[in-house]
Amino acid sequence: MSHICPSFDVSRRMGSSVSVDKAFRKQKHIRLSASRRTRKVSLRTVSGSSNDIRGNPVFHLAFPVNDLEEARDFYGKKLKLPEGRSSASWVDFNLYGHQIVCHVIPNYNAASSQNSVDGDPVPVPHFGLAMSEVQFQELAQRARKAGVPFCVEPHLRFVGEPGEQWTMFFKDPSGNALEFKAMTRPENLFARQ
User: What is the pLDDT of residues 33-46, one digit of tens each?
Assistant: First the structure.
């Protein structure tokens, strides 16, 4: 299977005669200069805490949506995720200290299948977060108040097992499925049964 990545055009930023190698060296220099000017880089999260991204990796996910204003309404207004940078074709959001980016693909509608997990019809593929129980309950309340329809209502699953967790699933307006969960014992997130 072949995966094709579009090439990027460095000529617009760095002059038409600049080689890709020189562009990467220049980019590295810019990044180093910025780090010298900034002692601490942080992302403000919905919970009010911050993540120092110099020592802690931040997850990044880019995914298609069919309409930026619908995405802004869903992620920004309904889920109350802070909006970051944007252009006419994409917008990023701070998902509890992690970066998600909505890219416009006109007429996109995510197709998903379902897999039964502890009796729940779990949409696949999906993405989301494992969070604290307080954050989970706050998000569930926010989603309900905003009228977000759940694929799987917030509830406790795997009761009495090492993987016991609160879970909920819903979809954005483009059909992208999201899961949010809270382990009753966070240390068991990666526990084997």
Answer: 443 333 333 444 44
